[in-house]
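Example 3.2
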Amino acid sequence: MAEIGVHRFGFSGRNPLPWPGQQTLRQAAERYFHRKESQADNPRLARLFTAYNLTHIGGIKIRWTRNIVDHLLLSDDDQTVFIFHCAGFLRYQKCFANGIFPDGFVEETLRTLALLFPQNDRKSRRWVNTQILEHGLDQGVANCGSLRVHDRRFEKFHFWHDRLVILKQAFDESSPRGLTQWWNDRRNSVQWYTFWIDILVFTTTAFLGMIQCVEGALQVYLSWKALH
């Protein structure tokens, strides 16, 4: 479930895992997926940070991939994110004492799926099940559990830390593009209430204005009819 090496006479459209001839596959994976030690004071990822909200609030498209090298990568000017959905493959790797990935990598990757597809979130659960049916995804992606508050801190992610930071920045900097996204966007509660109060005032004013116009037209008609 990874693109290995560079194709000299072909192009797959996926990012490969470099594999120098003098290294074992595990050494190549350890070199590419290097562990990053994070500071203990790093902020946490809010419960709002899910794949469902990335799409329905941030307008970021999900591109499902079977290439783990592309996992959490942004493309299309930060409008699309790749997500590796093969949870079964990851769980299978845990069966090996000395697998091809660095120690702790598989467990952390599964935790990124639990972060993006929390089982305790009803909207996320319904949405990902729909995605599984539509795109033929690994059903295990919907059964990775949920993360507790202290497990959502950036310092808990060593291999995927940088990509999560970039993805969160893209999500935070995104703005709603339609009424549906405005309705779902609760990142700034003051802004959310202000926007919908303005919509309510505008709608009420327009409705009352329309009633007055109809009432005025009716009065003119009745006056004209009374004269004739």
